[in-house]
Amino acid sequence: MIIAPFSMGDSPVHRLDPRVRVVASTAFAVAVALTRAPGPATLAIAAGCALLVIARLAPGPLLLRFARLNVFLALLAVLLAAAAPGDALWALGPVTFTETGARMALLIALKANAIVAALTALLATTDASELGHALWRLRVPPKLTYLFLFTVRYLDVLHREFGRLRAAIAARAFHVRCDRHTLRTLGYLVGMLLVRAFDRSERVHEAMLCRGFSGKFPVMAVYRLGGGDAVFGLVWSVIVVAILVWR
Amino acid sequence: MDAPLIVLEDVCFAYDAERPVLRGVDFRLERGRRIGLTGANGSGKSTFLKLIVGLLRPTRGRVCVLGEERRVEREFLPVRQRVGFLFQDPDDQLFCPTVEEDVAFGPLNQGRPPAEVRELVTDALAVVGLEGFEHRITYRLSGGEKRLVALAGVLAMRPEILLLDEPVAGLDEAAQARITATLCGLRHEMIIVSHDQQFLDATATTTLHIRDGRVQA
């Protein structure tokens, strides 16, 4: 299982310091979430798309990611346009779609796409372990950081364990039906996965004790800010401030 | 003659009081020895190794490691600095995202400075024949590579004794040969748990068996 499909690339974005990317994407997401007008939202989506172009991500998976997001947004837009009060734009039987509702839906769609574009370009291009170290350096509470790093490390192990269990039940002719047997089997599958995960966590802890673990994690990686980080930081700050001021 | 490195006297252990796993184990590891240990599944081989480093405590009997009796956690801490334990499943042992960090974990815990740790990591990877693997992602390694990286993580702590739990189980012939060659190139005293008699003939000086809760010749 590949956890971060966009992280294995080389582009000016991939070369940015992970800490800069975490801070930049967080600031951007907050600023965009606060906007209330289509103008700044358009600026935001332009900035997000520009980053995606610079990051040179594979177009196939990228389109799929945005397609999923927009299917969800389309459902939301329909509900919102029908529920918001205001001048009727269009009536379908008893349901009226209002102009205010349509505007709000459009704004939400712009904002959501802008944030996902920026997060994909900045954070999805970071390797999970780099992201963990960046969080650590940014003084995110160590417990959260290590929860994240352990999750990344063991997701694949658990995924394979799940695969083995599923293969084992499939090998004995199990297939999903709509009955109690299916529910019970799936329940056992999830339960067994939890039990095994728990056992593994104990073994991991024992192995850590054997190598002198005493509750503190030593970190070796060193990051240095470079010229690219400075240029990006400056340009990005201007965009974020512009979005915040314009709103 | 030197005192033995590890002595177990009349050691008993039970996970479940009804069915004790070890029932009066007497065992010695002398200097210059590499002991192979075989036994049926569930006979207590892994339990035996865990008792030596204090991951489990005996219900009866004495555990002496490196010349001192060890009873409580505090007394076992120095043991874990000097006795390297290779786990059966390398996925249990490799928990850092990158190879370098994982191999560095032990030496950093020992409080060594980063510059020295970097050297230890390079050396340990060279010993297991994985030069240049520093920045590889641990979960993307093959089974054999994982085992070798786990061994490097143990060796980087510069232990005096190695406890190896099934070091070649589940590996293909090429990977087994690499582990065998690596172990034969080391000078440590070892206890090697394995089912593979050929592998033990190649790596151990003596083979013992765990049977009926005791270690026998």
Summarize this entry quickly.
Chain A has 247 residues and is mostly helical. Helices cover 71% and strands 4% of the residues of chain A. By secondary structure, chain B is of the alpha/beta class.
List the helices and strands and how they pair.
The complex is a heterodimer of chains A (247) and B (217).
Chain A: H1 18-34, H2 38-55, H3 59-83, E1 88-92, E2 95-98, H4 99-122, H5 128-137, H6 142-171, H7 180-210, H8 227-246
Antiparallel strand pairs in A: 1-2
Helix pairs in contact in A: 1-4, 1-8, 2-4, 2-8, 3-4, 5-6, 6-7
Chain B: E1 6-13, E2 22-29, E3 34-39, H1 45-52, E4 60-65, E5 68-69, H2 73-82, E6 83-86, H3 90-93, H4 99-109, H5 114-127, H6 143-155, E7 161-165, H7 173-184, E8 189-193, H8 197-203, E9 206-211, E10 214-216
Parallel strand pairs in B: 3-8, 3-9, 6-7, 7-8
Antiparallel strand pairs in B: 1-2, 1-4, 4-5, 9-10
Explain this structure.
The complex is a heterodimer of chains A (247) and B (217). The model of chain A has no long low-confidence stretch (mean pLDDT 86). In chain A, a hairpin with a 2-residue loop joins strand 1 and strand 2. A two-stranded antiparallel sheet of chain A has the order 1-2. Chain A has 2 domains: 132 residues, no CATH class; 71 residues. In chain A, helix 1 runs antiparallel to helix 4. In chain A, 26% of the residues are buried. Chain A has 247 residues and is mainly α. Chain B has 217 residues and is of the alpha/beta class. Chain B has a single domain, classed as Rossmann fold. Helices cover 36% and strands 24% of the residues of chain B. Chain B has 8 helices and 10 strands. The two termini of chain B are 22 Å apart. At the A-B interface, helix 5, helix 6 and helix 7 of A face helix 2, helix 3, helix 4 and helix 5 of B.
